[in-house]
Amino acid sequence: MGACVEEALRGIAALGAEPEVLVVDNGSRDGSVGAAGAAGARVIGERRKGYGNALWHGIRESTGDVVVVGDADGSYRFDDLAALVAAADSGADLVMGSRLRGRIEKGAMPRLNRYLGTPVLTGLLNLLFRTRISDVNCGQRALRREAVARLDLRAGGMEFASEMVIKAALAGLRIAEVPVDFRRDRRGRPPHLRPWRDGWRHLRFLLLFAPNIVLLAPGAAFLLFGAFLEGPSLFGREGLGWARPFAGAAFVMLGAQLAQVGLIAKTWYHVEGFYRRPYLDRLFRYVGLEAGLLLGLGLVAVGTVTGVPLVAAWREGVSADPGRIASAITFLALGAQVIASSVILSVLGIRRSTVDPRG
Fold first, then answer.
1. What DSSP string runs through 64-104?
2. pLDDT tens column, 122-131
């Protein structure tokens, strides 16, 4: 730890900047905190465990216009910060280091991380959020002071690394990337990283922040396919048998469920400040609970009207057409879903107006 601090002080001196090195301690017991303080760092405490909690506390406590962050295990070079700082000075709000574009010391990165975990997670992030980076897991980065407040970072664990990039992309911030060197861990103990556990946490975080692709797009596709299968029976055509109309009903209900959950997820992110979607404010303003209830009740009414003759036929011992049965079930289920989703969205809308009355 002391060596990292000394290296960082040399790197800052080479830039001609005012020296400030912060080390965040959230429970270290190996004596590294004392070594960091003796080497000239300002040590601050963070009682909450977790990579994200420690890093975010350090970022908030720093005072420079550009904040460079990195792991203090000796794996990143802090005596050569020129490329990171120059990219930030050129207008980038977030500057990502890239180990894959830089030099990686032999044995510094496990093969699983280098050739599978990092490329897969990075490719998925680029696909979902339209970024163009090569190493989402790189721990050495630079941020501009005025951009930090706009990110509102909250993740307490390793997924903090992905959250920073995702929120920067969603906020429309400028993201740059520069190569960095990656060395073997200089500590005398195994790292805290757990490749499979931490990889899953990153993947889960990426998927949860992409409701358009994960929920809304598949939901719309299932809904359209189901409507194609069930369409003839919805318009009164008989003699289609059981398979097609009931398969269509299943796809319609599944698609509607995914789409509604996706809309609820987007609304929750908007309300809680993870990212802003102004069109949701307009949705709450012009399409309220009453509209959703009327639509849902209308669908239920259509399903009821469709189902009344089926009940009469059943009482008389006459076999009802499978397509009409599927149609009645579809309208009733969709109506119930719309009513339930309208209530949830209305609750979130109330929360939105409470959090930010200006909406």
1. SSEEEE--TTTTB-SS--HHHHHHHHTT-SEEEEETTTS-B
2. 999 999 888 9
